[in-house]
Amino acid sequence: MPHAARPTVTLHDVAAAAGVSIATASRVLGGSARKVAPEYEARVLAAAAALRYTVDASARAMRRASDSIALVADDLTTPSMGMVVAAMEREARAGGAFVTVSATMGAHERQLETIRLLRSLRPRALVLTSSRFVANALGGRLLKELAAYEKEGGRVVIVGETDMAFDAIGFDDYGAGRSAGAFLAETGHRRVAIFAGVRELRTVSDRTSGFAEGLRAGGVDERNIRVVYCEVSRQGGFDAARRLAEQGMDGRQAVLAVNDIVAIGAMSGFRAAGINVPEDVSVTGIDDIPLAGDVTPRLTTVALPLAHAGAEAIRFALAEAGEPRRLIVEGRLIVRDSTRPRHP
User: Fold this and answer.
1) Which tens digits make up the pLDDT trace of 203-240?
2) 175-203 residues labelled b (16+ CB within 10 A) or e (exposed)
């Protein structure tokens, strides 16, 4: 009488027998470079031996190929994002992984399409950076796609504002803006323009609100705070500064720019119009990109720990799954040469 065929043992069976997650069992049996605690490794190997589990060669090759961490960003061309990506790459390599990058320009449909494609390639983790990720985007389809990816053993980390239940690292953009606004108020500036970028971006709107609050708290009259919306780029700052100069500066003693690139563009625009920085107008930014310390005059700014956030995102991505973690990183005011005190 022929023997009955032995049921196929799956990775899920091994994980259940060992009392570990599927992701942990996969790392042990798939030859991953990621470290697993010796206790868990021993339990997985014992369960696999007891169940006579064999690893399919092609599946193992696929798992080894999945030592990638996929970064999905709005825009990869900005200096601040360059600092984040460089830190991610260094941290990933130290952990035996590597980073791939995709840009979506912040479009939800493109984000969804990119995540679906990446999910089919089975990266170890997805790191998403954007001004804001919300659970109800695209009717919840984006959240559903990310949740399915995590259920399959992947990790999701978000760098930016989100209400989704994933690991997340955010920047205190409001606090950074408030710090810059308070500094200008404390140094005697009483008529200030805010180069605010565009209303739709959560990051820049939070910074703009912080600017205004810091100024008001320092005694600047609301009527003397002028908000100027512009493109978030060097050209946007340049054009906003030229327009302000053509209006005779409207009595403005200072400009708070939503980031360093806009601030540097504004300094160029004032220079082209014959307005001296900081003699005629003070200029500040936010981010502290490398160029901020190289331009003339050197830019006063609020330094955000961009590299630290990038490295932490990779540490989150490489760590064992658990309850979602939230990390908020704060900025630090750096006073340089583009500002000077105003006296009554």
Assistant:
1) 999 999 999 999 999 999 999 999 999 999 999 999 99
2) bbbbbbbbbbbebbbbbbbbbbbeeebbb
Strands 167-171 and 326-329: parallel
Q: Which fold has domain 68-171+307-329?
A: Rossmann fold (3.40.50)
Both tokens of 34, joined, read: 């990621």
CATH 1.10.260 domain locations along the chain: 11-62
Task: Quick: pLDDT tens for 120-142.
Answer: 888 999 999 987 777 787 789 99
- Averaged over 80-103, what is the pLDDT? 91
pTM (two decimals): 0.80
